[in-house]
Design a protein that fits this description.
The structure is a homodimer.
Chain A (H helix, E strand, L loop, with lengths): L10 H15 L7 E2 L2 H8 L3 H13 L3 E4 L3 E4 L4 E7 L3 H7 L4 E12 L2 H7 L6 E11 L2 E10 L17 H8 L4 E9 L3 H7 L7 E10 L2 E11 L5 E6 L1
The first copy, chain A, binds a DNA duplex through helix 3.
DNA sequence: GCAGTTTAGTTGTCTATACAACTTGTGTCA
DNA sequence: TGACACAAGTTGTATAGACAACTAAACTGC
């Protein structure tokens, strides 16, 4: 088998690796000073712009902090960079090689109650779109999704065929995402959720509340309920 | 009140804002081409290095993808950058202006059972450190923490006074973090956990399983149980 | 029509230089 | 002693130029 051609890493990467190594090994402790750009120039024989790029990227990754006029230090906290993605549950299931199905429970335009209107940034009684779906993985309910959508942001929302296009997919396509807030809690399902998910009312669930903003307007608020026995969030980080 | 002096944003930031605007407004859709560096140079009257920095940073943030020789395009997925941090629960509570207390339940050296040894990358029966603590916020139990530690990574672990220093704090200080994996589930507490947390056995809990790696060795594995009625994970993202 | 070659366009990296803005310690002067 | 000025050191930004590496389309010869 042909060996992968190993191109020498760029100079700025070598500096980053060098500094990362000192931090990871503990020889440079949090709040310790990192050599100045001038010192690294001399040590590695590189131009300042190259050294600057290495340090600037490490700062962006959160490993060091830089203060103009003062210097560079090893960051005190231990940030672990991650790249989260608003994922479409359909893709997520397809990626596992499973089949995704959808049961449509409610598709309607309603007058918003006070709390819903507030969260969507509308006045109480304003028209909102409301959908309730159950997503199935290989036929088994995995997510109960109760969503309110701002009609101004996605006017065609109610015409979507939710058995073939998920709300997340449609909204990402029609309302570019600019901001999102979320929270994850452990809760018991209410009677209706338990029945639709086919679980006992005593089974704990992960409840994700998510609010997405598109441009200046709140696009939608969603409550997604996952049975604790069938789902968990997982991830990994590298310093 | 003195108005905050508004310094003109750097040129590369202006380009980033310009491009971000086109993506957020939807005029540039996923997979659409972004103007080349040469085109942006002409449009903004800037040097290539400045334009390059703007595009490179947008690529690092996941908003665009760049292919050498081909060009720059709007990224297809909707990444939402975040900066997670391995936080010390003591700091977290202190930040809310509350007081943190710790109840020490177990501090011991044990022989690892098969599963624990496997996860720590040790042989079955190897010596491991085992602690069980309950963290209190204003006197109320908020986290049950069951942790196994690799003695090779933190030999002094058992001598720590856990009423004043949390395991997380000690480990971050003595074993620089290089990698972490985690998962979050909804579960019911077992009898012992429910008793120590002072909750009913039917109350759902958020269970975080975390495995941290320091250098080449697994540093520790922890199971942290949060009562669902008293805790949730929250965060926000900006595209 | 096809295969191979060339060419224009694009991104990746690096240098040398310049000036601005900020921090920190030192020295001076009252 | 204290207030102020100054200088050295450091990071932030921007430029102009250069070469390398890669892509994709156009071109050429058969």
């Amino acid at each position: 088998m042909p060996r992968k051609k190993t191109v020498a890493a760029p100079a700025y990467e070598q500096i980053k690796t060098h500094i990362r190594g000192h931090i990871a090994s503990g020889t440079w402790r949090p709040d310790d000073p990192v050599p100045s750009e001038a010192a690294l120039m001399a040590e590695f024989g590189l131009s300042r712009m190259t050294v600057n790029r290495a340090l600037r990227e490490l700062a962006a990754e959160g490993l060091v902090t830089r203060v103009k006029g003062s210097g560079t230090r090893v960051a005190a906290l231990h940030p672990i960079s991650s790249q989260l993605t608003i994922r479409d549950i359909h893709e997520e299931i397809a990626e596992r090689g499973h089949t995704h199905g959808t049961r449509v429970i409610l598709v309607a335009a309603e007058k918003a109650d006070g709390e819903t209107a507030r969260q969507l940034g509308l006045r109480a009684g304003a028209k909102v779109f409301h959908t309730i779906l159950v997503h199935l993985e290989n036929g088994v309910p995995i997510q109960y999704e109760d969503r309110h959508v701002n009609p101004a942001v996605a006017p065609g929302y109610l015409e979507v065929d939710f058995t073939s296009i998920t709300p997340t997919h449609y909204l990402l396509d029609h309302a570019p995402l600019t901001e999102a807030t979320y929270s994850v809690e452990a809760r018991l399902p209410d009677a209706h959720e338990a029945r639709e998910l086919g679980i006992r009312k005593t089974e704990p669930c992960l409840v994700m509340l998510r609010r997405t903003v598109s441009g200046a307007a709140v696009a939608s608020i969603a409550r997604q309920v996952y049975p604790g026995s069938r789902y968990r969030f997982a991830g990994s980080f590298q310093a």
